[in-house]
Amino acid sequence: MLAAAYSFLLAAGCVLLASSEDIAGCPQGEICDQRTNADIEESQLLSVDLLQQSEIKIDRNVEPEFSLYGADAAPKTTTTPDPTGMTMNAVGDGEAFVSALITNIVSVFVFMYIFSLLRKAYPIMFYDNSIKGDAPELPETTWGWWSTTLGLKIDDVAENISLDTAMMIEYTHWCMKVLLWIGIPMFFVVGPINMLFGGYAAGEDHLSYFSFGNVENGSDLYWMHAVMIWYVTLNVSSAVYRGMEGFLPKRVKWLRTLPLVRSNTILVECIPEEHQTEKGLVEFWRKLLPHCEIKSTYIAKDTSELKSLLAVRDTAAKNLQVAETALAESGERPTVSLSMFGESKDAIEHWQKSVEEVKQQINAERDRIAEYAVSPAGINSSNGFITFKHAYEAELALRLSGISNDAHAWQLSSPPAPSDVLWDDLTQDNRAQAVRHKLGYLLVLGLYFAYMPIVVGVTNIAKVLDWGPLWQGLAPTMGLQLMVAFLPTFLLIIFRSCFTLKADAFAQYKLQTWYFWFQIVFVVLATAVGQNVKGFTQTLMEKPFAIFGVMAKTMPYATHFY
């Protein structure tokens, strides 16, 4: 209801504001000042479409001079090169938009049909949850999944699948609602007012008639757009608070239904060396929390040698099974040769002997680990787990602060799901971690500066290939599309290789953070960045508030791209 009231007030205010102007944007009842040649020239410089139609020539082969400030900043922002895939508004974009819209709509239905066929051909892959009974039963018809899927409740998804999956679906619902409350007044109120009362600053660029690019400089419609900004801000803020109100009960229910092992356990990192044993950990925390009952402690250990032996045992056991199967099928005992010119041996006897030998080595390695685990350091890492008898005791421990004078010691957090723990990361050496972290940040920084050159290079290669009209329509943005698609993969490779994550979910969290900022810079601010990523970053660091001016001078003339 609040959003509906905002929409009604916005529409009334916009109509009232527009009614005070005539078609040319002048207040009714007043004599408008005639536009001078200087005014017309300034309008042409600020209109990218008219700039492209004028006799001003831009050398696309020369990297444009970068400036976020100065009186002549607006014309310079129009030199964003085509190889980046970032094009400004131009005549003819309307036809391209309609073609892209039709292509996307057809693609959606085509891929939905392909999914429907694959769902029937590979049921375990596409609706295994339904087969197991974790989700509603789906009809065997081609489109039978449609109505059943739409009828799913978020609470049922959270209970039977996971809260993360349910929240992802709920987030898409939230986005659709926000777009509905913002898009309807934008399209049916603000758009027509821009078209009828904006002053036709877009010229022959018909697709820009509904946008801010059709509003002349100094028009009173600027006030309408200021009001619209607050309308969007209030709607999004209100939607965020409503979404949080709906999420908190689900979060509380999820916390209360956690397995006891996880809800009663805390993850302890950066344990001081003198406490890096199970016994030392128990003694320290019993002194720290004498009224809490500790059920068990565990220190992550360096078991790399044991893991190698287990892998050898599994390989030998698998080969033994293959040899026994071959004997059962052919009736002849198979043989195996350890080298190209080596003597052939009975395969079953060889692999049986190998399994027994490796088992002895495994037992010896386990005894060695148990012997050295009673002493600090050595095979013990600086990370471990403490399990309390009650969940409130674990929660109390998590709230402790100032445990040690060393701010980096005794870092406490909730543990990830047992199946998601990356044990190799927990056993990493602290000094090696610091080196890998620095390497990871350097790789992310290198990817940041290499992003736009890769985009330009891929786009130039795509433009050279002449594969018909459809390809020529895709080629100008091929580089940008590929980098946007593969950027998460590149970032995940860096995170999993260089950072200590503790659990694979932490990689997704870091990806969410870094991918957001890459999207802000190379998509939202693409008009300002161009090819000069270094110049953009340097200027932004020197004058961070200048970004608002350049966004105001560039984004209205690149609305078709967005």
Q: What is the tally of beta strands? A: 6
Strand order of the largest sheet: 2-5-1-6
- Could you list the spans in which at least 5 consecutive residues all have pLDDT below 50? 15-83
Count every helix, treating DSSP H or I runs of 4 or more residues as helices: 23
For the biggest sheet, the summary is: 4 strands, antiparallel
What fraction of the residues are assigned to beta strands by DSSP? 5-15%
Q: Classify the oligomer.
A: single chain
Rg measurement, Å: 32 Å
Q: What is the first-to-last residue Cα distance?
A: 30 Å
Shape: globular
Helical/strand content category: mainly alpha
- H/E series: HHHHHHHHHHHEHEHEEHEHEHHHHHHHH
- Compute the average pLDDT: 78
Percent helix: 55-70%
List the SSEs and their pairings:
Layout: H1 2-19, H2 37-46, H3 48-53, H4 73-77, H5 93-121, H6 123-132, H7 144-150, H8 154-160, H9 163-197, H10 221-256, H11 260-263, E1 265-269, H12 278-288, E2 294-301, H13 304-330, E3 335-337, E4 344-346, H14 347-372, E5 380-388, H15 391-398, E6 411-413, H16 423-426, H17 430-464, H18 469-474, H19 478-498, H20 504-524, H21 526-529, H22 533-542, H23 546-554
Antiparallel strand pairs: 1-5, 1-6, 2-5, 3-4
What does this structure look like?
This protein is mainly alpha-helical and 562 residues long. 62% of the residues lie in helices and 6% in strands. A four-stranded antiparallel beta sheet has the order 2-5-1-6. Strands 3-4 form a two-stranded antiparallel sheet. Helix 19 runs antiparallel to helix 20. The protein is globular and about 90 Å long. About 12% of the residues have low confidence.
